[in-house]
Amino acid sequence: xxxxxxxxxxxxxxxxxxxxxxxxxxxxxxxxxxxxxxxxxxxxxxxxxxxxxxxxxxxxxxxxxxxxxxxxxxxxxxxxxxxxxxxxxxxxxxxxxxxxxxxxxxxxxxxxxxxxxxxxxxxxxxxxxxxxxxxxxxxxxxxxxxxxxxxxxxxxxxxxxxxxxxxxxxxxxxxxxxx
Length: 179
Fold this sequence. Notes:
Number of helices: 4
Low-confidence stretches: 172-179
Shape: globular
Strand content: 25-35%
Number of strands: 9
Distance between the termini: 42 Å
């Protein structure tokens, strides 16, 4: 018998272990891009995520503040993720029951542009201890979501979702050659 944790797409994809520790979601959030709902494991090409996604945060209190992080777990390529994690977006001080557009964009959105392979792009939502308690990192590459959360006392993620992104003119998968 398999547990629900073993069937969790964040676990099966390796997001939980490569980027996050195991957690129990506590806040609902909805992510869309160009009107398309982003769910765990969906595939998007760079043109489909060229603009920052729309993120709606649930919760029960407008006074609760959240931090949203978007990282590439496989930069620069899945076979050699030597720059992982790569930070694509950081928004802080997002009031509960609103969306990312109501927060402070601490690191401007940078559209993913994978050149090789299928990349896991991970959106993580953390509940902050208070307002203005999270600062932008010095660089985008070699970002570490776990360490960032520890540094800013963010605790466990409140929610997370990941999508797969591959280069525009291909599937990003393995090529089959004929004999």
